[in-house]
Structures are given as structure tokens and as C-alpha cells.
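Reviewers of the previous submission asked for a worked example of the structure-prediction workflow described in the proposal, so we include one complete record here. The input consisted solely of the amino acid sequence. No template or homolog information was supplied to the procedure at any stage.
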Amino acid sequence: MNYLFLLLVLILSSCSSNITNKSQKLLNKINNTMSQDYKIEDGGLIARYNLIGINKKNCIYASNFGAIINEEHVNDLFLKKFKSKYKNPKILNNASEDRIRKIKILLVKLNNKYRFLSIAELNHLKKSSNDKKNVFDFLSKTENVCPISRLSKLDKILSSVPIMLPAYKTTITSHYGPRKHPVTRRRSFHYGIDLIGHKSCHIYSAADGVVTKVGRVNGYGNIIEITHSGKFTSKYAHLNKISVIEGSRVLKGEKIGTQGNSGNSTGEHLHFEIWLNGKQINPFDFISHACNC
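From that input alone, the workflow returned the following C-alpha cells.
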């Protein structure tokens, strides 16, 4: 029995490792191509922030980033798109400046409400030009640092903040707050948001982190909890399939499971929660920007 249990653990560990390696491998493919062919360091930023999405200027984060780093054919399509759209550095620089501005506005807005940024992170955000009129100016251009490099510094702060929509092309069907429970029909507080994507759609991690819980919880069905830098925890419930194990590290955008109908649920969907310092908060504040994309 002990041997069978050990074998099962090794198989699950191998599966988790393969998933992580696949996402990292496809992200590395982008980085290597950008570095070798275009002399652009950290080309993953271009995919993460949709810097070639000229017609999607409202986006902060690429809505299809999860597909790009989990599906080989989507990764190849992205690289083809980049080659066709990229004409000169000005395109990427302008898009980077736009993302930097929007990210800073989002972070300032969220931190004013939730106070999750450290003093060092706040100082980094405030390190800007002497122009007091523009409080959302990110970094002074006089630092002679290209916009993509500045975006890279900002991305390190964002990596552990769950701002990525955990599913692609999804619809919010129930918001955070009081409601009549669809199963019990009783008035209760809904501590997350419900999202519906296409049948059995992939569910992605909303930020970099470590999987701290995998299993079945009464009411929630199959659930995954991911801790992000010790401050945030994101929870994904009613899943059909789970693709990670406890203790595994995940990337923002990495596939962690598929949408399902497990637990106390009336239909296939994802129940998504964000916790900050052990308290539930409104996830819509963090992913609402994706609805404008």
C-alpha cells in the first residue's frame, strides 16, 4: 500500500512538473525569439500586456495570455502576429507607455482601497518626474530607460497581484455581495464572483504563486487555492478537473484546471475569490479592467 501511495505521489508530481514546464517552455520560446531576432529582452512582456494589440488599447493585460503560454499553436500564432505587426521600436514603446500609465492608475486605485503595497513598492511607483500636475506619471523619461525596461520593473510588482482574468472569453453571472443563493434560495452573502466560459474551458492562475490547497470542500466542490507572495490568496471552485498539486509553483496565466459543476452548483461555472491578509475582498475590483478590454 505504501508503495502504491508513493507511486501515485510521483505520478502526480510528474504531471504538475510537466504542466509548469510546458507554460515556462512556451514563455521561454517567446523570450528567446524576441532576444535572438529582435534584440528585445523579456519578450514575454509583449505577450502579457498585448503590446501589439493596436486595436485593443483599453486592455491592460492580454486576455489570451493563458492560451499563449499553454497552447503551442496559439504561441506560434502570437509570434506570427508579432512579426507581421512589428515594424519599429516606436510601436512597442508607445504601447508600453500606455500600459505603464494604466497599470499605475489601477495600482494606485486598488492600493487606496486595500493598502497592499509595501513602502518600497509605493516609493517605486512614486519615483516619477517633478511634474506635480500628473500624479499618475510613472517614471521620469529623463532616466534614459526605455519604456519596455520600465514596464519590466513594474511587472515585478504586478506578478503577485491577482489581476488576470482566470478564464478566456468569460461572462460574469453573479457578483460579490448579498444575493439569493441559486440552490438554497436563501438570502446570503456571495464572497466571490461567478464566471461562465465555454464548456470545460481552461482556468488559469490569476497571478504567480504557490498552490496551497487542492481538494474537495463542502459546497465548493473541487477547489484550488493559490497563495501569492504571502498577501493574496486566490480560490477557484466548482472545478471539473484539477491540473496542479499542493506545493507546486504556478505562473500567472498557467492552466490549473477546467471549469466544472462540482459542489453546490446549478450549472457549469467558476466561483472565483480573492483574499487579502486572510480576509475576503471583492474580486471584481481586481479583474474589472479586463471587462473593458
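Helices lie at 2-38, 44-48, 65-68, 72-85, 89-114, 119-126, 147-158, 284-291. We consider this example representative of the routine output the project will generate in years two and three.
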